[in-house]
Structures are given as structure tokens and as C-alpha cells.
């Protein structure tokens, strides 16, 4: 393997990892928004996320022969998925979490796992009404086109497709929008106030129940948007497809510092690049002194990613951008 080949592989890892990482980041932000306000890990977020993907499938499938522009289809899919997933997340908060708000932390955590399992089977039942288990997303053909040259620069070696660029652009716009919402609006200030001290914010006239519901709405909408991007990227999904990506997105949120918005993005990018690198690292086994890398198969990339998480949390328990806190008891 020559240096040019090594450089090409590393560029592919950079681009592929960025595409995967921003997907994790979008979903991780849903975990982070909820945790920041309630200190609750919403394990049902994986199902909220994949619900968005299923809604995207339904929109793309309904419009596949309509002659509608592909970008209009994508916009409609995003809007529908964000509305449905956001509403589902609000419903979960209202029925499952709000009645347990004063309970010990373990109670809502177990409830979240139970809600996750219920939603998985409910989604399987609803998808099964179409006589299907696995859904093949009829993606507009323009999204699958390869990008081989930009401004005269040959990019054919990167295996870059239009849908990868869309994913990165959507993630960037979403991150900017969320940052403006949280830091520059009255709602954002209210969210930060409730996250800091719910009781004191209530004394200041802030309706904490309303703010928490809106936070779940935003988190669910982000999850739904992530589901659309997942459906677009992989073009196949089922009722259980959200479990592993959702767990990885949660890992990304913890990696960056749970409750920290920039941390969720950083954690997603780190996890995406690491996972992509581990998927091709065996190719470097032909280099002098690196023969042992040939034994690291692509199937082990998930193990490597979680081992890296354990190592980073061992060194920085609060995550990459999280702040360590102490509690007096």
C-alpha cells in the first residue's frame, strides 16, 4: 500500500465519518435536550427516532410516482416526521414521565425502558399492517447520484453522494438553529432557567410543565429529523432499526457530556469518525510493522467504539465537554 492509497482511505474515513457522525449528533441532541431539563435519560428516544424514519418512508412511498421534485419530497418528509415524532415525544412525557416526576430516579428510568419496548412492538404491528417487516425506502434518484468533481477537483475516490451532502448541510442548519433558539430566544432562556433550577424558575412565573413539554417536542422533532436522515442514508429500516443507532447516539451524548449541546455534536463526530476508521483499519495491515491490524475486522467496529467511550469516560468522567460537579448529601 503506497502513501497515495493511505491518503485516499483517510479522506474516505474523514468524509464518511462526518456523514455518520452528524447523524449520531442529530439524534444525540434529542437525548441531551431532555436530560438537560429533567436529568432523565429517555431510552424511548430510539423509537421516537425510528418513527421519523418510518414516516419518511410513507411520504417517499406515497409520492414516488407523483413526479414531485425530490427536494420537495424530502422537505415534506422532514416536516411530517418532525411533527409526528415531536408529538409522540410529548405524549410519552405527559403519560409516562410526568406522573413519576417526584419519584426516585430509577423509577422513570425503568419506565423509559418499558415505553421503549412497548413502542417497538407497536411500530412492528403498524408496519405489519402493510404486510411488510423490512421497509425499502424509495429514495429520489437524484439523492443517490455520485459527486465526482467539484470546481475541477476530482472527488471520485471519496465515494461521495448527494445524500451525504444533504445530511451534513441539514445537520449544520439544525445545529445553528438550535443554538440560536437556546441562547437567543425567550423560550431558550426559559429552558435554561428550568434546567438550572425548576423550583426557582416556577417562582419567577415560568410554567415548568409547559417548558418541559416544549423541550420534549423539540427533542422529538430532532429525533424525527434524524430518522429521515437515517432512512435517506441507508434506504432500509424496520421497527427495530432505531435500537442500535439510538444507543450509539446516546453514547455520543455521554461521550461529549450529557446535557451539553456542543458536546453532543462533538461526541457524534468523534464516534462517527472512530467507527468509520475501525471499519477499514484492517486495510492498514499491509503497512510495515502494522500487520496486527489485519486481525481487526470491520465487524468489531462497534466494540472498538464502546471501548473508546469507556476509556474517555475513565479519563474524563463528565465527557469531553462536560463539567464535573459535586453534590453535598
Automatic annotation (TrEMBL):
GO biological process, one term: D-alanine transmembrane transport
Principal location listed in the UniProt entry: membrane
InterPro entries named among the record's database cross-references: ABC_transp_permease (IPR001851), BCAA_transport_permease (IPR052157)
Transmembrane as UniProt keyword: yes
Keyword Transport: yes
Family stated for the protein in its record: Belongs to the binding-protein-dependent transport system permease family. LivHM subfamily.
Any GO MF annotation of the entry: L-phenylalanine transmembrane transporter activity
Residue stretches spanning the membrane: 6-28, 40-60, 72-92, 106-127, 165-182, 211-231, 304-322
Annotated keywords: Amino-acid transport, Cell inner membrane, Cell membrane, Membrane, Transmembrane, Transmembrane helix, Transport
Membrane topology: Multi-pass membrane protein
One of the record's GO cellular component terms: plasma membrane
Compartments in which it is found: Cell membrane
Recorded superkingdom: Bacteria
Name of the featured protein: Amino acid/amide ABC transporter membrane protein 1, HAAT family
